[in-house]
Amino acid sequence: MPVHTTHPNRRPSSHQPLWLRVTHWLNAAAVLVMVTSGWRIYNASPIFGDFTFPAGITLGGWLGGALQWHFAGMWLLVLNGLAYLLLSLLTGRWARRMFPVSPRGVLRDAWLAITARLSHADTGHYNQVQRAAYLFAVADLVLLVASGLVIWKSVQFPLLRDLLGGYDLARIIHFCTMAALVGFTILHLVMAMLVPRSLLAMLLGRPTLQTTTSRENTP
Length: 219
Description:
Elements: E1 4-5, H1 18-44, H2 63-90, H3 93-98, H4 103-114, H5 128-152, H6 158-163, H7 167-194, H8 196-204, E2 216-217
Antiparallel strand pairs: 1-2
Helix pairs in contact: 1-2, 5-7, 7-8
């Protein structure tokens, strides 16, 4: 009878590599800092009339402090985001996990999710709704950073300022992309609560608290 050996180096696809988990949580920290400090900066010069954010949920204490936190979060977000994209491309993860994606596939998987028929057995496999959401988040972050650069250094980025329709429109775009990012984050947290195995995979690298070991099964 043959001996069946489990190869210790062959990981299930549901495992999340260390670099992905590190960049994921660093990105979460950067977004939290940037959003809450950004709310304080917004309050100093509101765009939409009398609408402001409660001071208790903002970061920085005052405009100067908020700006310092915002710039610190910006550098972390940009550098960490570049590291994530580079590693995703070099390892082939981007092509494997994010594509293919199509409107028909997104609608199909959305319907399966609504009717509770969408499988979550493999947390390392992204359905097309997840792929579309993650691609949207990346595009939203790129536009968020670009509009932020126009607000921060409008004179130094004249072409970018013109592409975004000027300084005032860049502020509106920055606010809207921030709101979209917050919406994505809330949806992301809700889905993580509904599928706790995915949260464990992003925390521990595996979708279970139990560790797996290699064995030899003999008759």
